[in-house]
Design goal:
This protein is α+β, with helices and mostly antiparallel strands. It contains 3 helices and 8 strands.
Length: 169
Amino acid sequence: MYNDTDMANVTQGWTELPRPNRRLTALAESVARLARPLLDGSGLLMGLELDSSDSLRLVWWRGDDFSEVARISACPEGFCPEDTEEGALQEAAFELLEYLSGRWPNPPQTLGVITDGTGIAFAPDHPQPSAPGWLVRQAGGPAPLLAIVPLAPQGACALLAKPDTVAFH
């Protein structure tokens, strides 16, 4: 989808998408805002994934050691009521991930993003955050996360940030 030559903007440790997309940004901002009450002050980060059978998975990890805390999955008909925090997040995450997958030339079987309740990021080369070792690979690997909306420079996702001095040309 994107390659190193496309990525030039690094803001507070997060490589931003090379071409802004207002709809994608608005959807991501909504998901981050709706995730915030489920993460606020806990030191957790969340992965949100959509697979090819339209099953939405939410995964919580500790930001300090990346250990998994909880995982839930549901198809749209099994989402929590929209007037609950979880239900509103499920609906917004489904819409974001469906839209993001539509931007992919050949959408992967599972596509996901992570959030700290401030921003939203994903890894085009490894689009499934719940895959074994994904967080560790992102923390220590050369491929940066792409921020749709920058994650907080400190907090649960700080170990995933790249130095501000990194730039791709």
